[in-house]
Amino acid sequence: MSTGPTFSFATTADDVATAFLDEIKGKDVLITGTSLKGIGFEAARVIAKYANRVIITGYNAKRLKLSEEAIKKETPQANIYSLVLDLSSFASVRKAAAEINAQPEPLHVLINNAASSFVDFKLTVDGLETQLATDHVGPFLFTKLLAPKLLASATPTYTPRVVFVASAAQGFGTGVDFDALENPDPAKYSKQSAYGQAKSANVLTAIELSKRSKGKINAYIIFTNIFEKENSIPTLQGFGALGADKKPNTEHPWKTIPQGAATTVAAAFDPRLNDKPGAYLDNSTVADNLLAPHSSDPVNAEKLWNITEKIIGETFVF
Prior knowledge:
The two termini are 28 Å apart. The protein is of the alpha/beta class. The protein contains 13 helices and eight strands. A hairpin with a 2-residue loop joins strand 7 and strand 8 (285-286). It has a single domain (13-312), classed as Rossmann fold (3-Layer(aba) Sandwich). 49% of the residues are buried.
């Protein structure tokens, strides 16, 4: 990227927000999945210091309130709006999007951070497998419904952004099983495989969103290695990433939450990314070389987009 602040593995979200505070000022930002001790919360916390408004979401209203209170305790002047959102339910996604679309405030940045990881097989109310529904289909529908509001925030000098939080799991296996996405089968289900497919889907969606919007919306994907959810621990221990004490294996360096959220903030506001839509970021810098072939294949991206539109019963119009 062009000259400017230099970031590294140790860079924190506060570091990035301070570097780009002029870009954050005046912006309205929506971040999904903002429970305490997560990278979504950390991103919301630092962005709220400078933004015009930060919309935080979660499916649990009480936990969402705790996040709002924690942010306001640190930054009393922060303008926080709490939005109940269950990404595994089309009805909840539509209700939440309608609530935001009915408000007069603009929307400049959408950060799709919420995720369900390594869960046992279960169908959602809409008949989809839970991980792929929560991590891919729900965010796809939410982004589609909020797209007009994002587009309305564009100016001659500003292009709205959508950020998808992925992980190294985008490289697992052979990518999205398109048949399983439409026709989930418990006999063929693997929680590890489903998570990898969901993260690959995040990458493919960002790539295709950037392509189809033709410069009207810039989408980015970020790498993260932060896992706080208890149900993730056995799987990560199986990979050797966590020890029996639940602490990171020293052979696999893991970021703190402030470090993990840094790339989220960079993807949302670094002006050096303006001419790099669809980029994959690691350590707050472009790292497209880390993408697996199945997660960067334009044929896969188009196929996934078309199938997902079929599942939600709507076409994405710019």
